[in-house]
Design brief:
Blueprint (H helix, E strand, L loop, with lengths): L1 H25 L6 E2 L2 E7 L5 E11 L2 E12 L10 E8 L4 E6 L10 E10 L5 E13 L2 E7 L8 E3 L1
Antiparallel strand pairs: 1-10, 2-3, 2-9, 3-4, 4-7, 5-6, 5-8, 8-9, 8-10
């Protein structure tokens, strides 16, 4: 009898553990940043301008933003990870947050520009907006500065 009780207890423990893991796997994922995508009208001076999309992600205090635009194009062929970029977003509570990096796909002359994901650090409750900030991209020693012509749509990024 004693051996049978031990096996039943072990089986129950395994079943409880499996149910706990299933519950964790089925738990809904928390949304970290909302919205996760926003658009702006970018002005890059003599380098052009137009609509750009900002895509944000968050994992705790680590966040990334990727900027893409078919209206802003590569003036020459550019190699992968050859653009040094700093995106500065304005915090509605005051101050700014910088997202930096050298991530970009290879681009042929005339291709749409994409930079990122650019890395930054955020705090819970940070509300960040492109309007009033800037995107600086350094390509072959030439710095291109883009600014938003107005607030981003549908609104600022709010981080958990």
């Amino acid at each position: 009898m004693r051996g049978k009780r031990k096996r039943t207890g072990t089986g129950t423990a395994v079943l409880v553990g499996a149910l706990a893991l299933t519950g964790l796997a089925l738990a809904p994922t928390a949304v970290a940043v909302t919205p996760d995508t926003a658009t702006i009208t970018a002005d890059c001076g003599t380098f052009g301008g137009g609509e750009a999309t900002l895509t944000a992600t968050q994992d705790g205090t680590a966040a990334t933003v990727t900027v893409t635009s078919s209206a802003i194009t590569a003036p020459i062929a550019l190699g992968q990870d050859s653009i040094s970029s700093t995106l500065t977003l304005v915090n509605t509570a005051g101050g700014t947050t910088a997202f930096t990096g050298t991530k970009n796909p290879a681009m042929a002359a005339g291709d749409p520009v994409t930079v990122g994901p650019l890395d930054g650090t955020v705090a819970s409750g940070d509300t960040l907006e492109a309007f009033g900030g800037s995107l600086q991209m350094t390509v072959l020693g030439i710095t291109i500065t883009c600014t938003a012509a107005g607030p981003q749509s549908p609104g600022p990024f709010v981080f958990d």
